[in-house]
Structure formats: C-alpha cells, structure tokens
Amino acid sequence: MAQVKKADVRDAILESAFALFSRKGYAQTTISEIASDAGHSTSNIYVYFPSKLDILWAVMSPWLEDQFTQLEQEISSIAEPQARIERMLVVLWHDIPAMENKLAANLLQALALSEPQDNYSSDLLLRLEKRLSQMLFEALPAERRKILDDQDALAHLIMMAFDGFVLGTRLKRRSARLDPVVALVTGFLLGETA
Question: Are 120 and 111 in contact (CB under 8 A)?
Fold first, then answer.
C-alpha cells in the first residue's frame, strides 16, 4: 500500500532542512538531523525525498527563483542600461552569495559532493539563465542585443561566475575586485571596452 504524502509533513521537512542548511551547511547536515528536527523518522523523509540533494533542490529552487523575481522587479525601475546591468551583476555576484542563510554556498557544496548517480538536474540553472537572458535583453540597448544568443551562453557565463563569487564570499566575504570586475563586464556588454 502506497503511503499518502501530506503537505504539512513535506513543509516541516523543508523548514527543518532550510534551518539546518542555513546554520550548518549542506555537507554537515544529515538526513537524520532533518528528520529529527522536523519531528519525523528518517525513513519517512525518504517517502517525500529520494535524497538529501533532492531536499536541497526543493529548498533552493523557490528561494533562488524568488531572488530572481526580486531582482527583476528592482531593475525594472532602473532606466539607464549601465546602472541596470551593474545592479544585476552586483546582486548575482555579491548580494545573493553573501546572504545570511548561506544557501548559495550550500548549492555549491551539494554540487561538489554529488556523483553522476545522484541525478543532478540542470533545470533550475536553465530556468535562471533564461530569466537572466531576458533581463539582459531588456537592459541592453537594441544595437547590443546581438551579443545574446538562443542558448543563453552569456547568462551561462554570468552564472558560472556566480559560482566563483559564492566560493570567494564563503571564504572572505566581499571580493576586493568586485567593483572593477562589474565595471569591466558592464563595459564589455555595452560595447564601451575594447
């Protein structure tokens, strides 16, 4: 007989995981700790999630999607392309990596510890890259939009840099070179840097 999944149990698991990942990090958090904190058995966790990685995705996806929604809303009120792009990059390369809940660092821990059999899905990354490409399209002057392509290559590059800034932030907080890097990339995007 299949066990019926209950929304309140799933929510308790995710709340517990969010708190533990934020406090201890992905690598140091165990399934049994998540279960205990949520008031459930470890075996019950596996009824809802096949792995700790799946729990992290369930926590990360809505959180990171929400960060992008907030960014979209914020930059929509910025008219000047340079300021809009700079704000986009600072949020992605500093503000999100530096958030107190450390979820961006948890993401990298999880990816570094994952194996091919863990069934990593790039769906979240692809969705975020698509959204980032749209933000760039709206920010760039019409004559510069040709640097964007249908494979979201530029957005992918920016998200790969996000990973590096997350690691740097984890080790030393704000990069001393963030401002010149943001200015350089913004200049390239706007065609102002040779």
Answer: yes
pTM score of the predicted model:
0.90
pLDDT tens string, the chain, 194 residues long: the values are 456 678 999 999 999 999 999 999 999 999 999 999 999 999 999 999 999 999 999 999 999 999 999 999 999 999 999 999 999 999 999 999 999 888 999 999 999 998 888 778 889 999 999 999 999 999 999 999 999 999 999 999 999 999 999 988 888 777 789 999 999 999 999 998 75
Q: Specify the DSSP element, H or E, that contains 15.
A: helix 7-24
Q: What letters, b where the CB count within 10 A reaches 16 and e where it falls short, cover 65-98?
A: eebbeebeeebeeeeebeebbbbbbebbbbebbb
**Domains: count for the chain:** 2
Instruction: Check whether residue 30 and residue 106 sit in a common domain.
Output: no
Instruction: Clarify whether residues 107 and 166 are in a common domain.
Output: yes
